[in-house]
Write a structure and sequence with these properties.
alpha/beta; Alpha-Beta Plaits; Rossmann fold; 4-stranded antiparallel β-sheet; elongated; TRM5-TYW2-like_MTfase
């Protein structure tokens, strides 16, 4: 169908769209189009649009039959991820971040807040600063494989990108296992493992994470199966020596420094899930050597069950997981 459209450059697309909408000239039943650096905004009154100073052209447009994506408003495909009802951007330029946030809000993307990463993950609690571009703050509820997690991303570390990896490990858990999650955060390993019938000891040094972990265990009906310890796992777990059938060590960059504690907590037959950030030339060697250096002198045989590259982390660096079984002969 031929429709009158206001033609402007892509860089002027969002302010022009907003201005047309304010004048009730935008035709919401037709699709916005982008071509050769120009954006074409369908209008309901060509004469009124011309009187307002816009160039109007006639062109074929499609009927709008679905949500309007941010790309239609921006003229390019923005990069963002969802966490609950928060949209997360990773933009270095504040003006570009603001444009994307405005387009997300004006589009049909459901959200209560849009935030932009304002710092790298840092500090003992591995948190970052955020610029809140839209909405009230940084709290949300994230749903993952049938479980709900209350999260404040300004207070705790959480990555939705690791959902598949967490599910892979959780699927290995059998009922009645005894599991130590050494760096539990808000509970994305601990809660679903407890839901599978395991008894979970969940540890974290961050008080905010511990509070959310307790809330999330209750929210998902597994509070009785999750014992929560606040503080350094090296100092809080003396009563659990030799207790664990499975141990999760998700603290990349630092987990290998806690292997002596993991071996102390391990029973006679225990699987350790060790996460690390390593160089792509030897992604698994450092972790395997570190496990052997601690476990073998303690009388364990070491068997690597799985070597897995979880994701790219930085140029020439990868986030990896080793599933390692340690067993006394």
């Amino acid at each position: 169908m031929t429709t009158p459209c206001v033609r402007v450059s892509v860089s002027e697309g969002e302010p022009t769209r907003a201005a047309l909408a304010e004048r009730d000239l935008l035709d919401g039943d037709r699709e916005i189009a982008v071509e050769d650096g120009d954006i074409f905004l369908p209008v309901v009154d060509a004469a009124a649009a011309r009187e307002a100073g816009y160039e109007v052209v006639n062109r074929e447009t499609a009927e709008r039959d679905g949500p309007t994506p941010p790309a239609e408003l921006l003229g390019f495909e923005p990069s963002y991820e969802r966490l609950g009802d928060i949209v997360i951007l990773d933009e270095d330029h504040p003006e570009r971040a603001r444009r994307i946030a405005d387009a997300i809000v004006e589009s049909d993307v459901p959200c209560e807040a849009v935030v932009n990463r304002a710092s790298k993950v840092a500090g003992e609690y591995r948190v970052r600063e955020w610029d809140v571009l839209y909405g009230d703050g940084t709290e949300t509820v994230h749903r993952e494989y049938g479980h709900e997690f209350a999260i404040d991303i300004a207070e705790v570390y959480f990555s939705p990108r690791l959902a598949t990896e967490r599910h892979r490990v959780t699927a290995q858990v059998e009922a009645d296992e005894r599991i130590v999650d050494m760096f539990a955060g808000v509970g994305p390993f601990a809660v679903p493992m407890a839901a599978r019938g395991a008894a979970v000891l969940a540890c974290d040094v961050n008080p905010a994470a511990v509070a959310s972990l307790r809330e999330n265990a209750a929210r998902n009906g597994v509070a009785d199966a999750v014992t929560v310890l606040e503080g350094d796992v090296r100092e809080t777990t003396a009563d659990y020596n030799g207790w664990a059938d499975r141990i999760v060590m998700n603290l990349p960059h630092s987990a290998d420094g806690f292997l002596d504690t993991a071996v102390r907590l391990a029973g006679d037959d225990c699987v350790i899930h060790l996460y690390d950030i390593t160089h792509e030339d030897d992604p698994f060697g450092p972790g395997e050597r570190a496990v052997r250096a601690v476990a073998e002198p303690a009388g364990y045989e070491v068997e690597v069950l799985t070597r897995r590259e979880v994701r790219s982390y930085a140029p020439h660096e990868v986030n990896v997981c080793l599933d390692v079984r340690i067993r006394r002969p």
